Amino acid sequence: MSKVFVIGAGMSTFGPFPDSIVHELCHQATWEAITSSGVDARKLQVCYAGHAYQGPCFGQKTLVKSGLTGMPVFNVENACASGASAVMGVYIMIKTGLYDLGIALGGEKLTGADGGFLPIVMDDLDSTNGRVMPAAFAMIAKRHMEKYGTTTEQLAKVAVKNKKYACLNTRIAEKYHKPVTLEEVLQAPMIADPLTRLSCCPVSDGAAAVILASEKVARQYTSKPVEIVASVLNSGLRTKYGLIEYRSEMSARAAKEAYEMSGIGPEDINVCELHDPFTIAEIVHYEDLGFCEPGEGGLYIDEGKSEINGKGVAVSPSGGLLGRGHPLGATGVAQIAEIFWQLRGEAGAHQVVNAKVGLAHVVGGGVTSIESGACGVHILKV
Amino acid sequence: MSKVFVIGAGMSTFGPFPDSIVHELCHQATWEAITSSGVDARKLQVCYAGHAYQGPCFGQKTLVKSGLTGMPVFNVENACASGASAVMGVYIMIKTGLYDLGIALGGEKLTGADGGFLPIVMDDLDSTNGRVMPAAFAMIAKRHMEKYGTTTEQLAKVAVKNKKYACLNTRIAEKYHKPVTLEEVLQAPMIADPLTRLSCCPVSDGAAAVILASEKVARQYTSKPVEIVASVLNSGLRTKYGLIEYRSEMSARAAKEAYEMSGIGPEDINVCELHDPFTIAEIVHYEDLGFCEPGEGGLYIDEGKSEINGKGVAVSPSGGLLGRGHPLGATGVAQIAEIFWQLRGEAGAHQVVNAKVGLAHVVGGGVTSIESGACGVHILKV
Known about the structure:
2 copies of one chain form a homodimer.
Chain A: E1 4-11, H1 22-37, E2 46-50, H2 58-65, E3 73-77, H3 82-95, E4 101-108, H4 125-128, H5 133-148, H6 152-166, H7 182-187, E5 190-192, E6 195-196, E7 206-214, H8 215-221, E8 226-236, H9 249-262, E9 271-273, H10 279-288, H11 297-302, E10 314-315, H12 320-324, H13 328-343, E11 357-365, E12 373-381
Parallel strand pairs in A: 2-3, 2-4, 9-10, 9-11
Antiparallel strand pairs in A: 1-7, 1-8, 4-7, 5-6, 8-12, 11-12
């Protein structure tokens, strides 16, 4: 088995671009990843392309815009975890020695004629009866508040933090460079009690790409490769017992596997991009990922531990999903790109000082108790 | 690197089932594959699920119906080659030693409210202006006829052959157990000259699944494992120079790679399931796969070489896409299942006597000259 390294990353600007073409956004990300890594594009051997709603042969349509055809392309979907699945797909191809160079890309265009709403799957009785994502997360929030005394102020602080960092991130559209106050989050229009509009991620389009390389070739391209020391994808239920338990069983299990695989523990993580489509999600995932004990997520944000210069893990320094939006297939790849830049000290104004170990976490599907979803966790280090 | 074996296969009946639920069809296929292989379902370690239009987290929704959750699931799409991509995904996981047991499944429901038509992608200028699949293949046919003197009778003979075999296949709905004569094919309503309605595959729903195992564990489950000796996925253009050249560049390249990988040549193949959504496709692919020289595809069918008891390669003994329909994600997996049964002598009334080596070939996307598609070729042997 080979070690696997990230040697280049690229991103389109994330934001609402209703007139854009998704393959063009992907091309921007792909080309930045290729040129910044110094790889001869013709040497790429395999591609995994993550997306959820962008139609057939998504990866091929993107790569052909970058002048790339011929390699095996796996178009992979796992709802919000599609991008992480793409990264893991390429990781495995290289880890196992089959290839030396591959590209993982992810993209999604959500704005457009339908106003950015996700399509409702008609055979999903929960969604068609109103238990869409904001409602599901609102119930998780209510449960967490009841069980642990978590407050709406604590929830709101997540939005304040992440939107503050988004303003520092030049890869996010100017439109989303808007800091918000605690009062503004609390007083925004209610979407699903206790989640207000500013507690939910905005609608964005975007794409991201990373170039992965084997141990054999990585140092031909860079003196600062970033190693992927754990890559885990699993499936299961988002919530352990449907409505009754709030924890993300998939997330806790994936994190445990990733820690075991890497020999790295939550106490070693300096920077984390996690799945924060709603404020409550970040608090719950502090706990799932082991940054704090169950029930202490509210305290973690209260004490500023997840701030860039906090005493815990710097969480969502990019702005996270709350800051940059959540173009589904792009998110998981963008997280890896962000961690890559952070660990190389190239993150810009939102750099976490001296970050050496980073974790990316994303969860897709599996809202209801009868359906299954996917969770991806990656740990990277320099 | 481990050898990789197919140790079990399953299929739902293929046919028009507008009232069916695709995950239920997949469950039937999955459960047959599991029970016939004797594998403890809980020992499956990874799943690749192929489909094109069935919505998010397709594989998870299917597996949960079979009581299976927790394993990594990659939902993979490559248009008509989605199923082959799923098989290759699991193949790689096992070949490289990462896992010992995995399941590749594919499914698609095409009938329903929209009458079974494939969605037209609005950014695809060719399709929106009328160059849909039948039109594209009609142009390939016209070109082949002009260049090589291929006749409409030769084209029609492909439909006669494949629909004859479909009548012997108990895994196809009774509705499609209808032999046709040369005259009926030629005189059927014209869809896109020279392709009549009986020259096109019918609309079907269906699902298929195969269990793949490493060398280490395969013989624990069966004394008749079928080895996958080549698995190739590539991308590119379906036609070499858009409209000008009729050959499938992707197919010829994938076949060449598969022959090199396995040390097996076209002269060694006993049985083949190839991509025959239209009669002309089978003729062109005889040539692409090296069963005959370029331009001799018409002669190949004329001389009965592709019949079950012919002097060449028995092609589409299952009935092929023309016989059973083409539920996109299911097709590539169903081909592997069919070759598995053929090589074990378990194909029933359409058994190819003494078949030892089989090839499965499928092509997806890439109709137009500017877009890219995918081609999968697998070679199996006992």
